[in-house]
Amino acid sequence: MKWTNARIKKLMELLKNAHPNAKCALEHLDPFQLIVATILSAQCTDERVNRATPTLFAKFPDAAALSKANTAELEAIIRPVGFFRNKAHNLIGMASELVICHDGNVPSDPAALGLLPGVGRKTANVVLANAFGIPALAVDTHIFRVARRLGLSEADTPEKVETDLCGYFPKDSWIALHHQLIWHGRLICSARNPMCSECALIKICAMGTGAITDPHKR
Questions:
Q1: Is pLDDT at 9 greater than 70 in this prediction?
Q2: CB 3.0–4.6 Å: which of 31, 45, 125, 217 could bond 106 by disulfide?
């Protein structure tokens, strides 16, 4: 199935209609809270992160406070999100770098973001898009799965899927598209039991129309 400009436009329309209220699920008030929440969200649900962050931000409201956190105390707060030792190490390191190199502020420069401990490409893209409104398309597990099932990409890494998606969609659509694809993956195109019979994208989906088999079936 070839993705022509007309099919891409139709996909964008269907996604917008199916998920008109799609937005970032990580609760945050500023770029600092978002970068912390995004680091915590690795291999963890947003819901679980949102349950942990109110206590975390009450105790460590900014980079200066977090950079001086007692490791054991921080680990105890974020234990429910999993991998808490590694995440605590990264959070303290990230906050320290913000204080030393950026006056305690989260930078809006992609290169500077990428140098922060615990901040990979996906985290940087989430912060750029949601904190600063800079077009970026972070590929998480949901987008990776949905993009491959739709036939938008055959790539085997999130980075390559991101490249494929950015090549298809106009830059000014990336932020909204990111949220819509995530919501679609969570609500409809789940990993184990995709609800194809209820999917608004079924007629233009490579897997849904039988053009390909599910690339995520083991």
A1: yes
A2: 31
- Per-residue pLDDT for 45 more than 90? yes
Which string of DSSP letters, residue by residue, matches 182-202? HHHHHHTS-SSS--GGG-TTG
Question: 158 by DSSP, 3-state: which?
Answer: helix
Question: Which pairs with CB-CB distance under 8 Å and at least 24 residues apart come from 119-127?
Answer: 119/35, 119/39, 119/94, 121/158, 121/159, 121/162, 122/38, 122/158, 123/35, 123/38, 123/39, 123/42, 125/162, 125/178, 126/24, 126/26, 126/34, 126/38, 127/31, 127/34, 127/35, 127/38
CA 94, chain centre distance (Å) = 18
Q: Which residues are catalytic?
A: 122, 140
Judged by phi (left if over 0) then psi (alpha if -120 to 50, else beta), residue 44 lies in beta
Q: To which residue do tokens 């305690």 refer?
A: 104
Give the tens place of pLDDT for each residue, 83-128. Answer: 999 999 999 999 999 999 999 999 999 999 999 999 999 999 999 9
Q: How confident is the model at residue 2 (pLDDT cuts 50, 70, 90)?
A: confident
